[in-house]
Amino acid sequence: MCCVCVDAATKCNGNRQDQFPPGNLFVAVGEGLWDNGAACGRRYRLRCLSGSNKPCKDGTIDVKVVDFCPKSPCPSTVLMSSDAFAAISRSDAKINIEYVQYVSLSGASPLISFASSSSSSSPLSSIYMYMYLSNSNILK
User: Fold this and answer.
1) What is the C-alpha to C-alpha distance for residues 63 and 104, in angstroms, rounded to an integer?
2) Which PROSITE patterns did the record assign (predicted)?
3) Cα 18 from Cα 34, distance rounded (Å)
4) 80 beta partners
5) How confident is the model at residue 71, as a pLDDT?
């Protein structure tokens, strides 16, 4: 697996530590989702679909966009934090994931905005994990 250390401020909120959600479940996104920075703060529900040696854990995780992909060109649609990656995969190998953007209303279930495919990002001074995605659009 290809990794890179990041010692820089995020494109969304610089060095603010309060931008990172509980459990450090966050992502950096590539050009396709970045939307000239409008992606900052968006939330996605992710699920591992497949990979070598059956790496996927059951269930989904909710992540927050905190950065733009630090590599050019970006190796995937989404780069997960190492904590987010570990929450859905048993290995550090490349995986295929599915994502859906949602908006959470106070006290209500998340509203699904759209479905697509994506990958991962990390907090300051952490490792970006690279993975490839599928084009699946169904999230259970």
Assistant:
1) 12
2) EXPANSIN_EG45 (PS50842)
3) 20
4) 27, 129
5) 84
Q: Please, is 73 exposed, middle or buried when counting C-beta atoms within 10 Å of its C-beta (0-12, 13-18, 19+)?
A: exposed
> Tens digits of per-residue pLDDT, 24-60?
999 999 999 999 999 999 999 999 999 999 999 999 9
CB 130 within 8 A of CB 1: yes
Residue 48 tokens read as 């591992």
What's CA 113's distance to the chain center, in Å? Answer: 16
Tell me which amino acid residue 100 is.
V
- pLDDT, tens digit, for every residue of 69-81? 988 888 889 999 9
Whether 6 has a pLDDT exceeding 60, the answer reads no
Q: How far apart are CA 34 and CA 56, in angstroms?
A: 26
Burial-class residue 49 by CB neighbours within 10 Å (0-12, 13-18, 19+).
middle
| DSSP-assigned letters across all residues of 21-82 | PGGG-EEEE-HHHHGGGTTTT-EEEEEEEEETT--BPSS-EEEEEEEE-SSSS-SSSEEE-H
